[in-house]
Design a protein that fits this description.
Alpha-Beta Plaits, 16% strand, extended, 149 residues, 4-stranded antiparallel beta sheet, alpha+beta, single chain, poly(A) binding
Length: 149
């Protein structure tokens, strides 16, 4: 074989694949909590709002590190809320003073971002088993029939 000819798919083996992970996925839990302490949740954001417009609204609160507007992955429409990360925690306190501020005809809901705790909703027992305790069990078509309790 002639070694001067490149083998097919040589470039495909050497190119790194792009990952779609967020930068917070590689951080330790205490680092994520520290970032969340410097961040705010902004609700009731107009769907046509850009990150630059939100930066302009909150620039008086402190140095802004990042503005994130989540987008629905199927319809590609913004979800109507945003997260703003400040360089220090004092920006969060100043930003809370902008709660209920009117922006593009909507009142913004500004609150500190909460840290998502994995498994937090698992304390509530899920329904398992038969339908004996449910509302529909006692209401059958035959009103004379009463099950034994």
């Amino acid at each position: 074989m002639d070694e001067s000819k490149p083998q097919p798919n040589d470039d495909a083996k050497n190119t790194p694949e792009k990952s779609q992970s967020s930068p917070e996925e590689n951080l330790k839990p205490h680092e994520v909590e520290e970032i969340d302490n410097r961040s705010i949740f902004v609700g009731n954001v107009d769907f046509s709002t850009s990150t630059e417009e939100l930066r302009d609204v909150f620039k008086g609160c402190g140095n802004i590190e990042r503005v994130t507007i989540p987008i629905d992955k199927f319809s590609q429409i913004p979800k109507g809320y945003a997260y703003i990360e400040f360089s220090d925690q004092s920006g969060v306190l100043k930003a809370q003073s902008l709660n209920e501020k009117s922006f593009k005809g909507r009142k913004l809901k500004v609150m500190p971002k909460r840290t998502n705790l994995p498994g937090h909703n698992k304390s509530r027992p899920r329904f398992r088993g038969s339908f004996r305790g449910s509302f529909a069990y006692g209401r059958s078509r035959y009103s004379r029939f009463r099950p034994y309790y």
